[in-house]
Amino acid sequence: MNQAITSIVLRSLICTTIFLFISVPSSTFAQSTNQNELPLGISGLPETRFVQQLTSGVTYTSIKRGIPSFEEYYSVDMGFFSDLKKAKVTKQTLKKHGFDSFILPIYNERYNDLYKDVLGYVIKSGKFKTQSEAIQFKKELVEKGFSNVKVSYSGWERRNITGPWSIHIIEIDRNLIHHMTASLALNTVQGRETVSSIAKRMNSLVTINGGYFIMHKHAGTPGDLIGISVVGGELNSEAINNRSAFVLGGKYTAIAPVSTSLYIQSSKGAVRTIDGLNRTIGKIRGCGGRSYQQLRHNITCTNHNELVQYRPIYGTRTPAGKGTEVVLDSKGTVIKIGNSRGQAIPAKGSIIAGIGEAEEWLNKHAVIGEKLMISTKVMSNQTPISLTKETHIVNGGPLLLKNQQYMITAKKEGFAHSDKFFYKFGIKRNPRTLVGIKPNGNILLVVVDGRNEQVSVGLSFEESATLMKALGAQDALNLDGGGSTTMAINGKVVNHPSDAAGERAVGDAISLIMKE
Questions:
Q1: Which of 104, 369, 394, 413 is 20 to 30 A away from residue 238, measured at CA?
Q2: What is the CB neighbour count within 10 angstroms for residue 510?
Q3: In degrees, to the nearest 5, what angle opens at C-alpha 487 toward C-alphas 484 and 492?
Q4: Cross-strand bridge partners of residue 443
């Protein structure tokens, strides 16, 4: 290590140590440096760890690794191209306008289930030391007619970097796992709530953000979980195509593929599948279900022939629109049939809504005073999961580790439906929320900050897997990340959420609640 880098490393260590000692009482922490260093970035980076015993069986570890590098730069991304020839055409166009640019190949990483070496090519224009310079340069490009351009930081993509990374880890003794719960934001499917608010409401020791959820109305029902959601044994959202999930069942925990099976049967024996649960009918976020066998994360697909059940956890009324709705009491007896959607959901019953062919099925088989029996099954690898008050399931993906082996199911679970999307979502470094299970049954809850070049650059999927393995996980799963990534201890956020507006309101969370 040359003298300049050594000087930077020493200054970084001193600053990090002072910051952490000011932030928390030093008497509750133990410090270690470069002890079993994490496999992030180049080797030999400064790494400081502070460990706190929150309570018996619950340990909090904060790790600061690496330093910002003078080699990194800001540039303006001009677009992603699957075809190198098309990238070169854009490069020539930029040159004609007097702008220099370069083409950056985007390479796949080792453990992803994509069998290609190069995903595509990103054209970048300019190299600047400050973000403000890059923003000004972007304005010049836009004035010349270039659209869909974005300022980026090289440390989000380059593999052998110096960081930095800010990592927060909770390890929970397996004997305390039955105190872990999932919770819906505001206790409703349509709710969104910050992690710190959920933590205070639940009076939890530790809370992290949970699964993927819908943020905007055009994509479906805002707040609705994208995939499986079970809270206290109640199924709130259907699974999508056996995607991996985090399963808590008392002292039983697993990271496993989860599927759901919902059927409705008339009093005369006619049977039909229920396509969805507590979501906007006709809109399938992630493109799962019977109509779409190939998952496509962050994409909303449509189905004009659907049957969807709405329970009181959804809200007070179903979404308005064309179709037929059948109102059921708590015993499944039909008490009302409406020729449009938008009915009040009974407090001790549910509503079955139908459009297209499913509407025809309801009109044929729903009779006031007769029963429509509903069957619900939740399974993992074809084995039923018993839904008790201690059962909680949080959606996620992709799988990162299985039996201590790297197994990143990005393609299988819908995160690589296009090379461009996967580059942005899985190859590029982002904030991450991760869960893991150690061989001894202990649970790891991990958040890694990102999108902040002075605090933490984030992780790719592969780096997430290598981190979890280094922390001792046998199985590991990626949860919702990006601006959602948040950890609260005793109701106080301990990481740096990346949204410019601050802590993001999310759809659900995982909490450790200490009971007296």
A1: 369
A2: 26
A3: 120
A4: 172, 437
